[in-house]
Design a protein that fits this description.
The protein is an alpha+beta fold. The protein contains five helices and nine strands. The strands form three sheets. The chain has a four-stranded antiparallel β-sheet with strand order 1-2-3-4. It has a three-stranded antiparallel β-sheet with strand order 5-6-7. The longest helix is centred in the N-terminal third of the chain and has 27 residues. The protein is elongated, with a radius of gyration of 38 Å.
Length: 229
């Protein structure tokens, strides 16, 4: 990868997994248009009658515009990079206004991989990223060269070497989420007879004592007078 892109956008503690440009097949259409325009301009300049010389001049100007378009597409192609690290996905694009799209790997919930018939012939593919958020900075990645190897590398980085998401391993070991958002092992929870006091319910006990609940005699009434000697 170009060192300028690495120095600007890749962090020092990131490990670069994939760093690629778009496939060269993206330049087939601009090159083909320029070649066809050149052939048409040469044919008109050679076979057009003298009274139609303006038509040949217009064809040359159109061919010149196609050449400028080809140069612009080539500069864009050289400036576009797709980078995958062990933490995020990056895509740089734009010639006049340089832009960088980024997506953390932990936000990628699905990645679809497609290859059209032309993609199978020339060796490129398309990735479609599904993210957990609503706004996606980068969703479609087209013209991916060597798509099979690139797909395997990215999937190995997202799901780990054993083919599963490391973030999900915590919740599959008999643990449960606590209030702080973490996980606790159920084996460390207290048993039924050792439950905390705040978990004990006293709803079934009476809130007052009805008359006759105790066996003590009724002591209400006038105080008896003591006999005098």
């Amino acid at each position: 990868m170009h060192s300028r892109i690495l120095d600007r956008y890749v962090l020092g503690d990131e490990r670069v997994v994939v760093a690629i440009r778009h496939h060269w097949a993206k330049m087939i259409e601009p090159v083909f248009s320029a070649v066809v325009g050149l052939a048409l301009a040469v044919w008109l300049a050679s076979n057009a009658p003298p009274e139609a010389s303006v038509l040949a001049l217009v064809a040359w100007w159109l061919w010149f515009a196609l050449v400028l378009r080809l140069a612009w597409k080539l500069l864009e192609w050289r400036n576009e990079w797709f980078v995958a690290t062990d933490k995020r996905l990056l895509m740089t694009y734009g010639l006049i206004t340089h832009k960088v799209a980024m997506m953390p790997l932990r936000k990628v919930t699905d990645m679809n991989y497609a290859r059209s018939p032309l993609g199978r012939i020339f060796g490129y593919g398309q990735f479609i990223m599904e993210s957990a958020g609503q706004d996606q900075a980068m969703r479609e990645i087209n013209w991916v060269p060597d798509p099979d190897e690139t797909y395997r590398r990215i999937c190995d980085t997202i799901f780990g070497p054993e083919g599963r998401d490391p973030d999900e391993d915590i919740g599959t070991q008999g643990g449960r989420a606590d209030r702080a958002g973490g996980y606790q092992d159920e084996r460390s929870q207290p048993s039924g007879h050792d439950e905390a006091a705040w978990e004990v319910s006293h709803d079934d006990e009476p809130s007052y004592a009805p008359v006759g609940y105790w066996d003590d005699p009724d002591i209400t009434g006038p105080i008896p007078r003591m006999p005098r000697d």
